[in-house]
Amino acid sequence: MISFLFIVNRAFSGTSSTLMSQAGSGPRPLVLCGPSGSGKSTLLKRLFAEFPDKFGFSVSHTTRHPREGEQHGVHYYFVSRSDMERAIANDEFIETAEFTGNMYGTSKQAVRDIQSQGRVCILDIEQKGVEQIKKTDLNPILIFNNPPTIAELERRLLKRNSETAETLQKRLKAAEMEIAYGLTPGNFHKIINNVDIDVAYMEFRDFVVDELKKQQALGVHFN
Ligand SMILES: Nc1ncnc2c1ncn2[C@@H]1O[C@H](COP(=O)(O)OP(=O)(O)OP(=O)(O)O)[C@@H](O)[C@H]1O
């Protein structure tokens, strides 16, 4: 396992106020965005396996009722629709979505909770969420996971056996727009061309480890 401790021997490129605010707020969140089937979960699974205590997922909010065994604040924050709508109006959420009549969302506070534990909060979010988080003060590291082609994306989704004909077409159609956004210069800090999974993982991991070292050099405390 890599240690994030290292000798600081690097020109400091930020301003002193950036340094103070970054060191005080904890590790920067890490956003991984990319079309469905591009391999985000696969990359994250490997990252968690290699660094079990460095990363964390934020707890989402939902208006659906808890299932047996689900705990408030652990699996989800279970809230009423009116409370959730009030919080959204109050600009407390990074992203929200509605599935089968229930609202779901990631609050800024849930991300801060992970940061305050000295962990990097991982956010697997869609384009809309990326646009939203850019407007906050969370200062995320933004990574786009780029599949080689739409045909390969289709092949991966078919092999995963998770889609109906309808959801497959929906995902592939959305992928074209997502890729155009992902490859637009300035939208992400890093693009991973996810062709071979082993090569893609090494590129992803090396980039993330390097980012964490840079933050550590700025005085950010890690778990
Ligand atoms: N580089 C790769 N080459 C071939 N197959 C891959 C690669 N990366 C992932 N896969 C496979 O493609 C399928 C989709 O990957 P995964 O579920 O990680 O995608 P995802 O981006 O997380 O999708 P979703 O957004 O729908 O959750 C999985 O079956 C996975 O094993």
From TrEMBL:
InterPro entries: GK/Ca_channel_bsu (IPR008145), Guanylate_kin-like_dom (IPR008144), Guanylate_kinase (IPR017665), Guanylate_kinase_CS (IPR020590), P-loop_NTPase (IPR027417). SMART domains: GuKc. Residues 27-209 form the Guanylate kinase-like domain. GO terms for cellular component: cytosol. GO terms for molecular function: ATP binding; GMP kinase activity. Pfam families: Guanylate_kin. Gene3D superfamilies: P-loop containing nucleotide triphosphate hydrolases (3.40.50.300). SUPFAM superfamilies: P-loop containing nucleoside triphosphate hydrolases (SSF52540). The keyword Transferase applies. Its EC number is 2.7.4.8. Keywords: ATP-binding, Kinase, Nucleotide-binding, Transferase. It is an enzyme of class 2 (transferase). The keyword Kinase applies. Belongs to the guanylate kinase family. This is guanylate kinase.
